[in-house]
Amino acid sequence: MALFGSWVVDYASGMRFHVLGPLEVEADDGPVVLGGPKERLLLALLLARPNQVVSVDALVRGLWGEQPPPTAAKTLQSHVKRLRRALEPERARGAAGEVLVTRQPGYLLRVAPGALDAARFEELTDKARRALADGLAQAAGSLLREALGLWRGQPFEEFLDTDVAVAEADRLAELRLVALEDRVEADLRLGGHRELVAELEGLVREQPLRERLWAQLMLALYRAGRQADALLAYQRARSVLVEELGIDPGAELRRLHAGVLAQDPGLDLQPTGNVAAARELPEALQAVGPAFVGRAAEVAWLRAAWTRAIDGRGGVALVAGGQAWARPGWPPNSPEGCTTRAAGCCTGAARRQRPTRCSRSPRRWRTGAQPAGTCQASGGPRRPSARPWPGC
User: Could you tell me the strand order of the sheet in which 100-103 lies?
Assistant: First the structure.
């Protein structure tokens, strides 16, 4: 039972609808026989907009196209009656429908929450996306596998000669690809890169224009110790995009390519227990102003370096620049502009390390890594590096 506006809906008990493949309806006592092709198409049109009124005009166009017969409206009523008998076999003759409801200017199909596989799929993928954003890769992967497991074939596959069904099928197919990419992302975070290579090779053959899949393939290859193959994958992606669309790869794919070339530590798999620790940088390492806007790869690298340093696995996270760029006095008793966490040392006389990062902003940020027990510092503004990071 559910509340819609000011009226209460009492859903048909146990009625389940499946459109992610051949159209099927199940009741508590087994499958429901829907009748002829027109009744099945009518149900598909209503399921494309569950719990919404679909006008008579829209149903007529869906059933007969742009040139319906003169008696189309009356014939539609006959199809509605036959479909009602299939969906509500125990309804008394002449009684109002409870599942297929007449409501001006057309008809409404009542679908209980979770009773339509397409709606359930979207609900699960939304939950998984939130879990992935919260760093819960394992939970996200489980939800996405459940969601993808609902698919039995192409959505509305027997009705692809109607515009409404085609539009809804295309929308659901795109959502499925996004869910598949999210599931691969979750598996990559959990260290499944070796197992993913073969699957991703098949996916980029099927969907050669989806840059996210190419990026995931490159990352999986790189983490599997196949840097050369990752670089070749980028060249393959670029060739496809240039030949098919006349464009170069997007900014994210180009940044990943640069990171693979430079063996960026930020591309390495982070241990599961360190994901939460790496999520936020300490205040002293936060950029002042818009210096890192759009620099996702650089921020990820800095977070990874910081995580390694605070976990005692060796390294220094350093930001060189003026007082406004690297906040002074952190950690306590440190020289101005020095930000470090390694063996508890920080000296202004330490040797300057070659920068490994920069940004196009006038605020020049640098990060570096040293073995534990060493330290880097900056005593004030520095000139830009003569060897900036690729793409700077």
Answer: 53-55, 106-109, 100-103
- Cα–Cα–Cα angle for 14, 25, 51, rounded to 5 degrees: 75
- List the 24-27 sheet strands across, edge first: 16-18, 24-27, 30-31
**230 and 366 in one domain?**
no
Query: What digits encode the pLDDT tens for the residues 145-177?
Result: 999 999 999 999 999 888 889 999 999 999 999
Show the domain range for 368: 281-287+300-392
pLDDT per position as a tens digit, 1-34 = 444 333 334 445 578 999 999 999 999 888 999 9
Q: Which run of H or of E encompasses 30?
A: strand 30-31
Do residues 318 and 305 touch, judged by C-beta distance below 8 A?
no
Half-sphere exposure (CA, 13 Å, Cβ side) for 79? 23
Q: Provide the 10 A C-beta neighbour count for residue 44.
A: 23
CATH classification at residue 86: 1.10.10.10
